[in-house]
Amino acid sequence: MKDLTVGREGKIIFLFAMPMLLGQLFQQFYSIVDSAIVGKFLGKEALAAVGASFPMIFTMIALMIGIASGGMVVISQYFGAKDMVKVKKATETIYIFMFASSIVLTVLGLLFVDPIFRLTKLPVELLPMAKTYIRIYISGIVLFFGYNGTAAILRGMGDSKTPLYFLIVSTVVNIILVFLFVLVFKWGVAGAAYATIIAQGGACITSMIYLHRTHEIINFNFRQWSFDWEIFRACFRIGLPTGLQQTFVALGMMALFSIVNTFGTDVVAAFSAAGRIDSIAVVPAMVFAQALSSFVGQNMGAGKIDRVKKGLIATMLMSWAASLVISAVLIIFRSHIMTIFTNQNETEVIRIGGEYLTIVTSFYLVFATMFTFSGMMRGAGDTVIPMFITLFALWLIRIPLAYFLSARIGEKGIWWAVPIGWTAGMILSYLYYRTGRWKRKVIVQPIPEE
């Protein structure tokens, strides 16, 4: 467990973020490996089918993971205030909620696969493979929730290293299994889905065993667990806006896919591959923001507002540096990177994907700025306004622009709508930060020093 209320702000955030960064990169590596092997050995149709499944999966998990992030903030603030009884109650409440909600989502997901794919206008030739992949993936979603709930609990207590270790092993297992299931057993896209849920299951089980054996305040005697409604309301109040924000982002992805799908398999495959690259490229900015949330949570709980502002500046500078380097690399080597996911003779897929990367990656600095402000406000417990900012930028800027521009300049209009939406979100986030209202959202009062 790590106390983030003492020490040099930038160094503390950087060291806390690094295990989380590696963990997120390894977690994204699941999707990268799946997509690369599927695209290389099963063809662009299989790549497009797996890529088209992701928005639906993201939509299912976004709300619950958002509430878990609220739990992380609650735990970090109780931990900063040295209230270990409440930390214990919060962990039990998070687990009960995550496992119960995962069962409900599994049932709903399996029931509504067909209608959702029809709604997003997925090309007919991609439907069988897409449905196969997502049905298998959904069946193991409880394991995904279990690991992410455990990781949120550990991070809230300042432990960002341990989730990484389990994730590294899980990623190695996933790589081995996807090669085995797809290349040796010839199970197609089903093999990629099975490899992912087995690997996630390993991470879930081992991380929970570790938490049980090494943290005295955590009791895994399920009969003694209790659901604390007061703590859940705090998690819900903080996490629901973030969860709704992520849910509407996921729905926005589905809306974008419904536009992309109308341009045919080549564009869907290119968007799927470039989207995988994009998802891993923005990880540093997202992780620095997440580390800042834990830092802000503990320092707000300890009443150290001056450290919060210094942490924000340090995080912003680190995120900018990472974004500039990543943008340059992806723009220069865009065509070579696209060939990771498809054969070199698929020149149209490579061209379209490179076009996406050139446009979108040029604005990573804007994305990093927007996310850093949001991360700070989430750590302070202020999540409602950031939610509305995200919804405004997505549903009133990006989606309408994507429809409008794609009708005039083709798929390139969809790509341009993305950074324009980020820019609107960045401006609004900065303006709200300047109001200072986030300072009044802390949920606990610091314990006076004797």
Describe the protein's topology:
Elements: H1 9-42, H2 44-80, H3 84-111, H4 113-119, H5 127-139, H6 141-156, H7 162-184, H8 189-214, H9 229-260, H10 265-281, H11 283-301, H12 305-332, H13 334-338, H14 347-361, H15 364-379, H16 384-409, H17 412-435
Helix pairs in contact: 1-2, 1-7, 1-8, 1-10, 1-11, 1-12, 2-3, 2-5, 2-6, 2-9, 2-10, 2-11, 3-6, 3-9, 5-8, 6-8, 7-8, 9-16, 10-14, 11-12, 11-15, 12-14, 12-15, 14-17, 15-17, 16-17
Describe this structure in words.
The chain is mainly α and 450 residues long. It has one domain. It has 17 helices and no strands. Helix 1 runs antiparallel to helix 10 (265-281), helix 5 runs parallel beside helix 8 and helix 6 (141-156) packs parallel to helix 8 (189-214). It is globular, with a radius of gyration of 21 Å. It starts with 8 loop residues before the first helix and ends in a 15-residue tail after the last helix.
Q: How confident overall, as mean pLDDT?
A: 87
Overall domain count: 1
Counted by DSSP, the helix tally is 17
* Helix-strand string: HHHHHHHHHHHHHHHHH
Could you give the distance between the termini? 23 Å
Beta-strand percentage? under 5%
The outline comes out as globular
Instruction: Supply Rg.
Output: 21 Å
Q: In which range does the helix fraction lie?
A: over 70%
The helix/strand class is mainly alpha
- Residue runs with pLDDT of under 50 for 5 or more positions: 446-450
Number of strands: 0
Report the biggest beta sheet as strand number plus sense, adding barrel if it closes. none
